[in-house]
Amino acid sequence: MSLINTSVDTAIAIAERRRGKLGEALYSGRPNTVLLRNVYALKSSTWLVVLSGFVEPVFYLLAFGVGLGRIIGDVTDGNGNPISYATFIAPALLATSAMNGAIYDSTWNVFFKMHFGKIYQAMLSTSLGPLDVALGEIGWALLRGFVYACGFTLVVGGMGLIPSLWGLLAIPAAVLIAFGFASVGMGITSYLKNFHQMDWINFFMLPMFLFSGTFYPLSIYPDWIRVMIEALPLYQAIALVRGCTLGNLDVSMLWHALYFVVMIVLGLLFTTKRLRALFLR
Fold first, then answer.
1. Per residue in 115-138, pLDDT tens?
2. Domain map of the chain by residue range?
């Protein structure tokens, strides 16, 4: 009973501190508790799934970059400098890995917690607010994206596929990308009602992966197709990471980064509003 009484007293104290403050109904300042819950879950059941997210881009790199790259030979970067095919696709696979990790956590995991585990209902019956839940879940996706980025960068760097020291910026760039996808992905998932609708996510992600400049430059497309692809978030992610790893830094890099900043802001606002509408009626 003492543990229960302590928990109740803590919740009351937090509620009293929030009273009268801006956003008191949305945020308690404790997203770390949601993040910590995911860490405990990782220890018990999901670590193999997390590991698979790192292994997949390495397999793609070996199969396409090294295997197919021997047939294709050298290509050119954005400035006309010759580089190996593996060097060209490695940053795209890093960006895709960051996207996949963030999307998995903010869609399938969130869907289960929302509709089957009823975890968010339990969280929001405590002192936690919807913004705490959103930031905690998105923070977990960011942590996963950071681990993927560090591991994949070590592999790629060890293979000599990062020709510039600016390539270290690919790690924070991957975290920014994961933040953007996770923010939007969690809000979209809140509208999905069954597993059949969840398949729509793969329906959009696979074409993005294939046509966003992952394996070849957009210059091969007609102008009207290229403009549409450039509006896709994965293209922006690939352009940002590729610019860092190849050292091709210019003003356009700021626009790529700003794209994800806007995604983050809009996604957080959207997700917080949806969680409040669903569970705090």
1. 777 777 777 777 777 778 878 888
2. 25-279
pLDDT score for 46? 58
Tally of residues, the chain: 281
Distance of CA 92 to the CA centre of its chain: 14
Tens of pLDDT along 161-194? 888 888 888 889 998 998 889 888 888 887 878 7
Q: In the structure encoding, which two tokens stand for residue 9, read together?
A: 């007293």
Amino acid occupying residue 268: L
- Look at 165 and 231; give whichever has higher pLDDT: 231
What pLDDT, on a 0 to 100 scale, did the predictor assign at position 176?
92
